[in-house]
Amino acid sequence: MNKWYDEEYSFTIEVVAVKGDKTENHCRNGDQVGDIYRCTYDCPVNQCGRGFCQKSMMLLFQMTEAVRSGGDLRKIGGFSPAGNVIDDPLCKEFVCPDGVVTYRLTAQKLNNNNFHRDGFYKE
Length: 123
Hints:
Blueprint: E1 9-18, E2 36-39, E3 45-46, H1 54-68, E4 91-95, E5 101-109
Antiparallel strand pairs: 1-2, 1-5, 2-3, 4-5
């Protein structure tokens, strides 16, 4: 792998709630409250080196692209099912497609250039 571009944003995805008191027999990925995934453009990995849920990744990708495009997550349902999101355009909670795990996505601007706008992308 030859990562040649410094991304404009980094993302943290934290497990903030699970339905019931455990994820066994509910979450195939085994996510637990307190698990934290991190990424830039690559797929998120948690503190144990395990990858993010494939089903939830379908939701996450759309939100990270909105951020990369200058979007405000509050305008696409930036609400907090767990009641823990501050009024921030770069923070949003979302529930996995199975309705078991609630994640909090937080984006952080890294002050690097934008891939498309600043001419890194060439056809």
